[in-house]
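Researcher: Please predict.
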Amino acid sequence: MNSNTSRYLLAYLLWFVSIVLAFVNLLKWRSSAMIILGITSWDRYLEHALNQFGFLFLAILGLIIIVFTEFYYRTGVEKNQLFRRFFLITLIELILLTLADLAYVVGSIVLNFFAPQSLIILIVELLLCGVVFVLYRRTPPPMELSN
């Protein structure tokens, strides 16, 4: 297998990792939204409608992310920036996942069903964000074209 083919294969493997993270984000944000809606005193029909439209919105956003990241990683291979781009997208996805878990923890405390495991998951996600941020900062930035 030549080097170019293996680089594109790696790009699609990293793309699959990003898709999985996007799907986990979708599920976690929906769960967190249900917890947040449980805190409110809104009508149950309004909550149901917000749940359904919110899931539709998140699914469309997930599809956009899937299409964008494929293009972003594929062009990253051409520009020799695959890992930098992967770390950036992964960092964004991990930050969104951490925010969703933070909303979940706060909501579970308010609704009196807090589980200590949620706090451990939140701490692990924060540590992962830190590791991915360091990896992103350590990858070389794109080369500037000189005139």
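Model: The mean pLDDT is 88.
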